[in-house]
Amino acid sequence: MRLRRKRSAKPELEKDTKTILAPAECKGKWNEVFDNNDPVHLELGCGRGDFIASLAGKTKNINYIAIDSYPEVLVCVLRKLNQSKLPNVRLVSMRIEDTDSIFGQDEIDKIYINFCNPWPSKRHHKRRLTHPNFLRKYQTFVKKGSEVWFKTDDELLFEDSLQYFQETGFQELYRTYDLHQSGFEENIMTEYETKFTGQGIKIKFAVFKYE
Q: Is 151 within a domain?
């Protein structure tokens, strides 16, 4: 995703209480941030927010945290949340590899990883959000029995990720190489998913449980 730097993005985010400016201070206290005891779901790499906004609108009894490293992306998400008047989402601008610094044990009930960078070069595989190095970090803050939902257009990343999850103790609950023909009824489209589907690319999808 190519982004034009916008100086106005960061100030706009900082003015809104949906943006968490000091997420490390929220570690172990995210239910206090939302002022309720509803489950907390996490999207890693939220893009322009079509997915998280649709999800939050359908399930208002769940709290959502959307993380991305680009303010220019997050400000698009923020505008969608405000337009739809969705109070159950918080935004965090940070590197995903640092997520274990902002969540305490058992704080997260579900993780969504949608169309992350496949990092095709073998020397870059450790940067994949499904690589065991990342999965072990997630295990420090997801609850036992919680799920990770993973979608991608990249078949090599998908195949490697199936192995990554198995290696780190996740149980595979569901797998399909053609999501839109699978009959899976809970799917919510992302921006990339719409684009890739329009190009005739089949979407790969799997659900894993942390045991």
A: yes
Instruction: Assess if residue 201 is contained within a domain.
Output: yes
Can you give the CATH number for the domain in which 104 is found?
A: 3.40.50.150
Could you tell me which residue, 8 or 106, shows the higher pLDDT?
106
pTM: 0.94
User: Any known ligand binding at 153?
Assistant: yes
Instruction: Residue 129: name the closest of 145, 140, 113 by CA.
Output: 113
**Structural domain includes residue 62:** yes
Q: Which domain holds residue 35?
A: 9-210
What is the rounded CA–CA span in Å between residue 149 and residue 108?
A: 13
Supply the pLDDT for residue 9: 86
| 112 domain-assigned | yes
pLDDT at 1: 47
Which residues share a beta bridge with 144?
none
When divided into structural domains, the chain yields a total of: 1
pLDDT tens digits, one per residue of 107-129: 999 999 999 999 999 999 999 99
Q: In sequence order, what are the beta bridge partners of 154?
A: none
Classify burial at 133, counting beta carbons within 10 Å of its beta carbon; exposed 0-12, middle 13-18, buried 19 or more.
middle
138 is in an annotated binding site: no
Q: 172: annotated binding-site residue?
A: no
- 187 assigned binding-site residue: no
Confidence of residue 6 (pLDDT cuts 50, 70, 90): low
DSSP state of 126: G
User: 7: pLDDT confidence band, cut at 50, 70 and 90?
Assistant: low
